């Protein structure tokens, strides 16, 4: 039988006192952020968080009844207001809509919190009045640690934390991007480039992996890991446009412009299209562009975007179903749920133009 991972074992592993470990894991002050992160990472590596008695004893959630307090029949939806993660978002808002509809069908309430500061979140969180938590989008380890400490069951949508174990729900980003890239290759594209940031989120990384895998399978050249279009900053507010413009102009001067640009999401693709048009390029006659997510604005693009439809409401509903299952089966293995996504063919993609004799 494996030995229990104690705070003392973590302290010995790091060469710090048990007091420092306790302070770090309890969220109390008196420990600097660097030390706190080291303690959390070591605790995760040693398996501390996977123990049933990590932190405090799990809260016992009472069975629902007709006369039960409505507040105790609510689910907390945590969506920190970072990276454009708001209810008004054409992507995140649809996920929240799915959560709300599923909870309403179960007769459950929903409390939405957009707080991203740990200290404020601790003051708001009242585990005794909640059934569980659904996290939407990017959430810091420190916030998830507070939830894990309370024993509240949680499910994360479009995000997973390497240190805090939980059930997760994602679109099948990798396989969907493989299919999209294979479609481009199938109609003749051999020079393609990924536009985004593979470190921006887990979904972006999975989409990049799918793109790269499809190219590698056909023995085609893939962008290097240090490619500047894989490290774009300003994806949230569209300020990456100038970096993309300079990169594109350099490619044109070198007669090396790709025939297709595969963007990490629709918002990125729409801005890419704006820059291309401003530079005098026609889409898709001169260059094809694809997006991902199928937000409403994708249909209003000029031209409308070929993209991948992510069933956002279905992701929200799946998270509610998983959370309720977790509440009733707390010891069941953790799951990563992948929701299938389909290609939506529109007018931003066409067969590449054959090179003229002067270009050959």
TrEMBL record:
UniProt keyword list: DNA-binding, Repressor, Transcription, Transcription regulation
SMART domains cross-referenced by the UniProt entry: HTH_LACI (SM00354)
Domain of life of the source: Bacteria
Record GO terms (molecular function): DNA binding
Cited Gene3D superfamilies: 3.40.50.2300, lambda repressor-like DNA-binding domains
Start and end residues of each HTH lacI-type domain: 5-61
PANTHER family in the record: HTH-TYPE TRANSCRIPTIONAL REPRESSOR PURR-RELATED, LACI-RELATED TRANSCRIPTIONAL REPRESSOR
Protein name as catalogued: LacI family DNA-binding transcriptional regulator
Species name: Paenibacillus tritici
